[in-house]
Amino acid sequence: QLEKVGFIGLGNMGYHMASNLIRAGHIVTVHDINYDAMKKFSEKGISSKKTPFEVAEASDVVITMLPSASNVLDVYTGQNGLLHGGSCLRPWLFIDSSTIDPQTSRKLSMSVSSCVLKEQKGYANTPVMLDAPVSGGVPGAEARTLTFMVGGLEEAYIAAKPLFLSMGKNTIYCGGTGNGAAAKICNNLAMAISMIGVSEALALGQSLGIAASTLTAIFNSSSARCWSSDSYNPVPGVMEGVPSSRNYDGGFSSKLMAKDLALAMASAKEIGMNCPLGSAAHEIYTELCKQGYESKDFSCVFRHLYAGKNE
Ligand code: NAD
Question: What domains, with CATH codes, occur in the chain?
Answer without folding.
Answer: 4-175 (3.40.50.720), 183-307 (1.10.1040.10)
